[in-house]
Amino acid sequence: MTGHATHFLERTKRLDESQVNLAIRLYKYPQLLRIILREINPPKEFDRVAIELEGENDGPYLVATRKGQFVTCLGKGMRPTDLYVISKERFNVYHERINTLAQRREYWAEVSENMAEDESLDSLIVTRGLDLNREQFLAASVFQPAFKHLYIERILDFTELLRDTRNTLVLLKKKRKEPPDKEELYRLYWNTFFALGHMTMMASMFGPQGIESWVNWTQSGVYPFYPAFHSGQIVNACRALFAAGRMGRHALQVCEVGLKKYHSSPLWIFSALAAAIIGHRHKSLRSRVKRILKIDTGLFEFADTYLQKNWRLALGAACQLMEAPDEAAEAGRQMARTIYMEQSKARNYPPPWRFENETDIPEDLALSHMVNMVADFRTSPQHLIILVSAMEWLSRTDAENLFAPKDLLGHMNHQWHPNHTQYLLDNDDKWYGKRKGDRKLFELPGRNHPCICGSNKKFKKCCMSRYPKTVTSKLFFNEAPLDHLCCPAMDYGGDSTVCKT
After folding, report:
1. 394: closest CA among 218, 247, 258?
2. Which burial class, exposed, middle or buried, applies to 71 when counting CB atoms under 10 A from its CB (0-12, 13-18, 19+)?
3. Torsion angle defined by CA atoms of residues 185, 191, 192 and 198, in that order, rounded to the nearest 10 degrees
4. Residue-wise pLDDT tens digits, 412-444
């Protein structure tokens, strides 16, 4: 036994049995301690740290260098002079997180064995579309601490790729040209569309720690997680709202600004829902969120009836989550279980995914099933109701629960067809369509008239810079009534023609 090991064992006599077990584990696996300290990131002026083992501010402590090398143990009552102290609660959070990542390495080992030779981690996330299952997500999340900056950059790249691909497809449709690679373009759009949601989850699952570039973008008014919500589909929107909940006060800054931008309906709805999720998840922010959500609904009058209805629905759901979270949670459970029961019968789910009674369906299973819906909430109040009913659950669930288990996913999805991509494109056309009579113009106040935000300032000195000369409601009123709720995954709003090959 080396002198250092002897010294270590001598110092552990200052600890009780449970504390000794932790100390020995960290001593035997310095790489684990090194990873934890790297995530905590102590101030650079401290070469050593003292890790609290009891949580009573008077010891005992485990003393180590910032590189993870063991130094000594301080018994109860001994003071860590000139050391950076890491509380037991904080250390346990990171310790548990690293243990979780270690468990996920087992998923990665299993998934990687079944991957093709030319398949990589990146292609696992980017090319799966809606077929990325929970086990694959857990496997890919092993590398989240190393790649979280990359995921943020890929979100912005995918947003541009989606725009460019869509513009290409729309232009070809106008020219009535059928490109030889049309199916390849449709598949690329489909995969990129949902990879945007996957990347949003990967980047946000552990919160804002270590994503300095994200914080800088947020402070400058750029919100990288919003594009997933802007896509209009429930599955991506739920992942964007989950991300906002994890980002806390950084995302709340964006929500405050977004609630003043009435000319962008999806951004306004996102800001209201995200603010409520943040307030429900972070107790320290609740009073601030309640102030933000005190909105004069009289300001909605400049918009058309359809947008007013959506805004009131979103604001009502946000306020309910803040004032009556138990009621919001129960409403979400009932909605999810009803949808699950209908779909399990319609698709003939086998055991163990089939249940006789709605109350027998586990909450996480029902809600995971519901948030994997491809249904456009921008053009249907029914779909917006489904989205807001998941808010309370999104504020507290784990990231992997937003992905369906492998065995269940196989029963939820149909095989991809170009018509599925066309469904996404058609919904965008429906929302952003520029046909005669589709757009309604609303005159804003004059320069010297009171501002519409209710600040009592003149419009020119308040919100005029945020708006063009007229506000355009980008909605095209030809929505067909839905006779039932949209089905999860690829049921596409009950339109059976979409899935015909």
Report:
1. 247
2. middle
3. 180
4. 866 788 888 888 888 887 776 543 333 444 456
